[in-house]
Amino acid sequence: MANTGKRAAGGALQGVRIIELAGIGPVPFAGMMLADHGAEVVRVERPGTRADHTDVLTRSRSTVQLDLKTAEGVAAVCELVRSADGLIEGFRPGVIERLGLGPDVLLAENPALVVGRMTGWGQEGPLAHAAGHDINYIALAGVLNAVGRAGEKPVPPINLVGDFGGGGMMLAFGMLAGILSARATGQGQVIDCAMVDGASLLMSMTWGFRAKGIWPGGRGGNYLDGGAPYYDSYETADGKFVAVGAIEPQFYRLLLEATGLTDDAVMLRQDSADDIPAQRATLTALFKSRTRDEWCALMEGTDICFAPVLDYDETPAHPHNLARGAFLTLADVVQPAPAPRFSATPAPAPRAPGTAFSED
């Protein structure tokens, strides 16, 4: 069974063709990003796979079902890559080689092909063949140790950093860089995209801060990790939360003005480490005195650097997100719209998983 119609015209990546060996997490996220912006992404699935309209990461794809453990399935993939710019896969190192679809085979079929290999630990290294998940990769990258409250255990930031920011998004970037190179030189290559590497890269600014001596504390002891009272979330009178990020002195001053604290000597000493407990106690009590909506009426849209903390139901309905069309609904599933926005080559309308493309 196949859904191999061409995608509708449009998007910055129109004319790019990617073969995606079906997997979970970062690889389909990379495929979604590329497809969102006009690339034709053909997803190779196991026979019998049924389209799942709730699987947001598989939207906007053509699909073909192949048994890669058969000679016929391998031959079909080889045929697909002959007219493709790239192939992405997320198996453990050595798996596609054992299937007969290793980089040497694929590049022999198409010397300009870019082969993107997504793993947690990388294609080589002592842990390359070990199992793992996002939490393990970001632990080794130094990310997990940095997330959480002072004196408490590290808190997993969902699976955003390893799987997606340091994984799928890095793979999408790597594929496009590789395709640009291949189109200039005629030579394809293999992209070794490891989540542990990508998660480490996302920490680059923090490593720079440490070198400058402006990130001296441990977990929860620095100005961007909840260590500073002016960069934190606070509970409101109705049990909801608001986020405050008044880092710069001029923004902090606005926060004090809006809360009536301009005459509080302790609050005026913004970066005094000795005053942090008292400052946090003051802001905690203050924000607990009004509802979230009341604080929004006072601060939202100002230079205080303030926002309500929204849940899954509230986020798509916020006026700013509505105005930007930040969310859409496909087959009754609410989901984020493609990003970023292109002025001359906007993303084509996404299609729900299993929906055939038309030549619009």
From TrEMBL:
Residue ranges, annotated region (Disordered): 339-360
Start-end of Low complexity biased regions: 340-360
Pfam families listed in its UniProt record: CoA_transf_3 (PF02515)
Stored InterPro entries: CoA-transferase_III (IPR050509), CoA-Trfase_fam_III (IPR003673), CoA-Trfase_III_dom3_sf (IPR044855), CoA-Trfase_III_dom_1_sf (IPR023606)
Domain of life (superkingdom): Bacteria
GO MF terms, alphabetically ordered: catalytic activity
Gene3D superfamilies: Crotonobetainyl-coa:carnitine coa-transferase, domain 1, formyl-coa transferase, domain 3
Protein name from the UniProt record: Alpha-methylacyl-CoA racemase
Species in which this protein is naturally found: Hephaestia caeni
